[in-house]
Design brief:
mainly alpha
Length: 286
Amino acid sequence: MHPAAIALVVGAAVAHAGWNLCAKQVPGGGALFVWLAAVFSALFQLPLAIGTVVANGGSVPGVWWLALLVSGMIHTGYFVILQRGYAVGDLSVVYPLARGTGPMLSVIAAVWLLDERPGLAALAGTAAVVLGVWVIGGLGSSGSSSWAAGVGYGLVCGVTIAAYTLWDAHAVTTLAVPPLILMAGSALTETVLLGPYALAHRGELGDLWRAHRTPILAVAVLSPVAYVLVLFALRHAPVSLVAPARELSIVIGSVGAWLLLGEPNAPRRLTGAVIVLAGVAAIAAG
């Protein structure tokens, strides 16, 4: 993998784990939390996106609008499902399963649909990432109903991750949509789609903002930063390598869940983290 892509993916992993740790601190926020974060995220990104449009001649091709709409729809589903998962399960279960299922499906689809051909080391690394994720998530062990619900939401989140990874990769490569424009447009779409729900529950917005403004703003900033770094990485390396390598965030998130949130089973999850690191190293070599 290109050194620039590696640097971008590592930076994205740190930012991504950070905003998920913040989101877990508002488990009951649901769609209102997602809407507030999307509003401030859009405000944060719009000046950069407008500057990018101006730098590109001031015009936005029609196909770009379609790319923004589809991306925003998938991301809206992802964020709402993720918040629901955090409301019923541990971050150290939901997050690894979501992040692990996504790249596994992304690599399969990239090989099948996009005709990408990653090397043997990269494929072995992908398998190691998936194995490490499952160890961290504790699949195969008995658990409570909340554990089972966390597993379910994590797996569904993984499907949405694979969907937006593939679509957004298509948008920034084949459709040539600048990453900053794609992210800003996606955030705007999220605010529009969730707007009616937020309006119907506007009485709760003030309380949610006053109680959790710090994690809301952290998610609003760190989430697009993490993903824009990934989109730029996709310009230096194929999606079948970038999608699994970005799962280094699982290691950071799992350690953070143990140290900051006091979640259990640290030895098993750290063992899984080592497997993930080995997989990321193999992907980088591939």
